[in-house]
UniProtKB/TrEMBL annotation:
<dbReference type="InterPro" id="IPR014729">
    <property type="entry name" value="Rossmann-like_a/b/a_fold"/>
</dbReference>
<dbReference type="InterPro" id="IPR006016">
    <property type="entry name" value="UspA"/>
</dbReference>
<keyword id="KW-0067">ATP-binding</keyword>
<dbReference type="Pfam" id="PF00582">
    <property type="entry name" value="Usp"/>
</dbReference>
<protein>
    <submittedName>
        <fullName>Universal stress protein</fullName>
    </submittedName>
</protein>
<keyword id="KW-0547">Nucleotide-binding</keyword>
<dbReference type="InterPro" id="IPR006015">
    <property type="entry name" value="Universal_stress_UspA"/>
</dbReference>
<feature type="domain" description="UspA">
    <location>
        <begin position="144"/>
        <end position="279"/>
    </location>
</feature>
<feature type="domain" description="UspA">
    <location>
        <begin position="1"/>
        <end position="134"/>
    </location>
</feature>
<comment type="similarity">
    <text>Belongs to the universal stress protein A family.</text>
</comment>
Amino acid sequence: MADPIVVGVTSAPASHRAVEWAAKRAAAHRLPLKLIEVVGGAIGAVGEDAVLDHAVAEARERVEAEASGLPRLGLKVLMRVDRGNPVAVLTDASADASLLVIGSDYDGPGGRRARGAHGLRIAAGARCPVVVVPDVDVSDRSGVVVGVDGSPVSEKAVAFAAAEADRLGEPLIAVSVWTPLEAPRNMGVYPVEYLDNMEKLTEEAQALALAGLRGQYPDLEIVRKVQRGYPSQVINDLAGSARLAVVGSHGRGVLARFLLGSISHEVLARLATVTAVVR
């Protein structure tokens, strides 16, 4: 059996959006859909078993309700309810998944809902690409934004984004951002030649990264953007009007599995649309 798309189910509103998003993608790719809810927080206190049993039963009803409410798309739907640490269970499940999808109720700075840490930890620890779905309707938006920097992980992000843009019939918006070195205090302004060369080098690197897409997706509209600024801010500004954003994660070192790269972390921290993190 092909590796399923795994969805983390919770009682939060964004969870339902995550299930719907994952179901459509699973149907398009003819993949199984696996719904997992994890009941966590147990510490072994006296009298806890009855509370835990009730929570597990409630979780099972919720997962079954999500499965039964899916449109008839010819999906094979698997269901699982576990006890334990949600981050650990979902990251372990990602080892046998083609994609892990989770919801996020975070609705921006000053919003009514606070962002929990679980989503960032799951995205950092997962062994497959992770898609984070906010509780926002993106159906009237257009475009798939992808961050491009010429690195190997960026190549994976471009491949993921191009396939999704082609599937959705949306333009691919390739974004490369260049950031000048911090100017010495006594310099005053940057030399024009330096700024021009930074922009030119970024444009060339982006062109190389996108070179093979025309042959692979002849009908795909590709919009190229090269901007000066800070990557996560530029990506999220564009993602605010896009259906999907895709970034690569440059987690490094012995703790790489548990750390997102700074850019992907910052993009998720200001979640502007449905966002995929590819490693």
